[in-house]
């Protein structure tokens, strides 16, 4: 009788170990899938930034229009500019906000606009009113402050 009970206890312990091993394998599979998805998203985001910057870099000379708009001065090698670039582009393209993008890595843009708009650091934002005159300026990457400028452009329409 003792041997029979002992074999049942051993079987229960083995079953518990097998169940635990199966759960661990399932957890490892799930973590591997999540990590893979995260890496795909990260690679995709980096690809979008690279694509957007390469498209903007191909525009050698930018001619700033003197109308109600927000001018975004940036450099494609600036980490703070890259951090906010996709949000700015989304506002410009998807919400049809009049944002003018000026890449200061372009020699023409750098030589012409850095002095004209007194740009000392990037990212820089200059808000133009209906007469094309500067009304406000912000240097930095705080999206809440940038969003306030974008909202002002929306109100000018």
UniProtKB/TrEMBL annotation:
Residues 56-151 form the Thioredoxin domain. Keywords: Plasmid. It comes from the Bacteria. InterPro entries: Thioredoxin-like_sf, Thioredoxin_domain. CDD domains: TRX_family. Pfam families: Thioredoxin (PF00085). This is Thioredoxin domain-containing protein. It comes from Lactobacillus johnsonii.
